[in-house]
Specification:
By secondary structure, this protein is of the alpha+beta class. Helices cover 34% and strands 27% of the residues.
């Protein structure tokens, strides 16, 4: 969806990892690759935009090495969407990005969008198997977490603790936290699904959620509460 960041030289990557926290893992070509992409379409082209996204989703799901390809529509602003995707390794992700389907999608989208897509390429950080297939009434959420680089090492345990506690919730169907590779390892994406609005509200008010926010408040946390709620495209 956009040009990928070039790999850092080994010495620079090591230095950045030390700065950003010892839990930063080096991404290897054989590791799974994930991406969260925010995009929009003009409200005048919403029907066409939804059709384009559904078509591209179906094409992408059949590309070699695909693990997941979901498209969700923002609840509050229905002309905005998020793509959540996973690939078995770097080669599969790169092939998808260079495919004729992707090039045609980007070309067509450009004519009807308001802003360029914003893609975050990610790796595993705190992930767990999905516990249930969400039914009608489920709440879908994507949250971007962005710490100041110097605060990342102290924030890491709090992020992991939040994931571990959230994954045990009775009403959670999915709660995964992904991390961007160095040099942006202070950036995270939370992809979560709850079985109902009540389950989501319970998570928001849970002691561990409140403790996480208190422990990572400004100036450590550069973008408090950047949460967006979605519904999946049929």
């Amino acid at each position: 969806m956009h040009l990928l960041a070039k790999s850092c030289p080994a010495a620079l990557a090591t230095a950045l990892a030390c700065t950003l926290g010892t839990a930063v893992l080096a991404q290897t070509p054989a590791d799974p690759v994930y991406a969260v992409t925010y995009l929009d379409v003009s409200t005048n082209w919403l029907v066409q935009g939804i059709g384009l996204l559904k078509q591209y989703r179906e094409q992408s799901m059949h590309h070699a090495g695909n693990l997941e390809y979901a498209v969700w529509q923002e609840a509050a602003r229905p002309n905005r969407f998020v793509i959540v995707e996973g690939w078995k390794d770097q080669a599969a992700f790169a092939a998808h990005e260079k495919s004729a389907d992707t090039k045609l999608f980007e070309f067509t989208l450009e004519a009807i969008r308001n802003s360029p897509p914003n893609q975050h390429v990610l790796q595993n950080f705190a992930n767990a198997p999905s516990r249930a297939t969400p039914a009608a009434g489920a709440v879908y959420m994507v949250e971007h977490i962005d710490f100041q680089p110097t605060a990342n090492a102290d924030a890491l345990p709090h992020v992991r603790a939040l994931a571990e506690a959230s994954q045990k919730e009775e009403g959670v169907a999915r709660y995964d936290i992904y991390q961007e590779p160095v040099p942006h390892a202070n950036h995270y994406s939370v992809v979560a699904v709850w079985t109902s609005r009540a389950a989501y509200d319970a998570h928001e008010a849970a002691p561990y959620t409140r403790q996480y926010r208190a422990a990572t408040v400004m100036p450590a946390h550069a973008n408090l509460y950047d949460q967006r709620l979605y519904t999946p495209l049929d």
